[in-house]
UniProtKB/TrEMBL annotation:
One of its GO terms (cellular component) is plasma membrane. Residues 1-24 are annotated as: Disordered. It comes from Amycolatopsis alkalitolerans. This is ABC transporter permease. SUPFAM superfamilies: MetI-like (SSF161098). It comes from the Bacteria. The chain crosses the membrane at residues 42-61, 67-84, 104-126, 146-175, 212-238, 258-279. It is a multi-pass membrane protein. Residues 96-276 form the ABC transmembrane type-1 domain. It is found in: Cell membrane. PANTHER family: ABC TRANSPORTER PERMEASE PROTEIN HI_0355-RELATED, ALKANE SULFONATE ABC TRANSPORTER-RELATED, MEMBRANE SUBUNIT. Belongs to the binding-protein-dependent transport system permease family.
Amino acid sequence: MFPSETDGATRPAERLKDSSATRPHIPAPIRRARRRGTWRRTGIIGGRLVLLAALLVAWQLCSNARIVDPYFVSSPAGVANFLYDYVRSGALWTHLEVTLRETLIGFAIGSAGGIMAGLLLARFQVLDDLLDPFFVVVNSLPRVALAPLFLLWFGLGALSKIILAISLVFFILLVNTRVGMRNVDTDLVTVGKLLGGNEFQMFRSVLLPASLPAILAGLRLGIIYALLGAVVGEMIAAEAGIGQQLTYFSGTFQTAGVIGMLVVLAIIAAVLDALTVLAERRLLRWQKKGRM
């Protein structure tokens, strides 16, 4: 027996009715709070844009009126013209690729090593007591002072910049991971043991999720320090990269070029930070669900 046309016509309406009936009802106070949050975020973004525009206008006016010497501080128009020509020439993409490659490789290796070391030190107290003084001494050394040694040991190529980035990221993730693992709520650990969880299950279901916010905070900080390490190494000695271009434009007294490279670095840092924040929000969605 085939379905009639009236049956086919009524089924979509029934589905729509059922879906609206099962849709969760959001209380009015929560809706108002969400609207206020949206308006607040919009206002903050608008305020930032207005402040940035005001600073740029003031800078341009002071440069045009010779209140400040354009030779030393350039102007927004001069920086914009430089960046336009620099992008059109294709030179930006060549140097940007070098810096990003060094940054991402150093970040990946340094963060992986730091997380693994932090987990081991948090798990084995004897190992932590044995190695802690050495980690403190090495971490206290200024990386800028070590950069010439890295260049001497690993050459002028990308390897020395990657090692410098690793040395910065490793200790950030080590400290954050170790602190995160040791600050897990003891009640969670006790409940997990009472439920019969073995060591692996405790690590996977209790310790790692509870320490994840600290680890992600370290990753967010580490990606910026990886970029700084790569740029600092390039500024000291390199064949290519944004840091090498910074040193070149500074040595040839091209102020617009120096500021333009700083703008490029600021954009790179903002994009990398936004990506880590996005990953952090996705990985920590369970926290928001738990609070609701």
